[in-house]
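subagent[fold] <- orchestrator: predict structure for attached chain, return tokens only, no commentary.
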Amino acid sequence: MRRGRKPCPKSGTLAETPLNAPPRCPDHLSPVAKKEWRRLATPLHRAGLLTIADRAALAAYCQAWGRWVDAEQRLADTPALLKTPSGYVQQSPWLTITNKQLELMGRYMTELGLTPVARTRIDMPVSGAPEPVDKIQITIVGIDEFGQRFEKPMDGWNPKPPRTDKPREPVQITLDRDL
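subagent[fold] -> orchestrator:
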């Protein structure tokens, strides 16, 4: 058995397939789970990490989230330790449920790229990052001898001024020595 890091989802791996449709929220989810689905599904899909093939994984995560929220609310109303009728002290069943749901959520969060560590292993372009530059085009902008503005790409530009019958006016250049 091979050990080591689990492979992480790659952004856009299913981009060219029919699987690249946003999945619909399953009807069987609890209201809290559906709310979590709505919070996550669109951003994950836009990031290229969620397709219809991933519907079950996100649904399982959302359902575990819903159960965890419910158990946490109930745990807040009861003590963490309870005394049984026979006198033994035991952990609240709600604490057991919260711990189990957190464990399940952790597994799905890793699979779906929902933790900081999982996101570092996802091959995604940084949003807002500029595309690499592979060509620079310089355009010469000026005024011709007739007072008309012109723009010419540098690669097709002839550095010799156009011939005119008018004598050229001298150009005075002043250099600022304080630079």
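orchestrator: received. Logging for downstream: The mean pLDDT is 80. Residues 23 and 54 are 8 Å apart (CA to CA).
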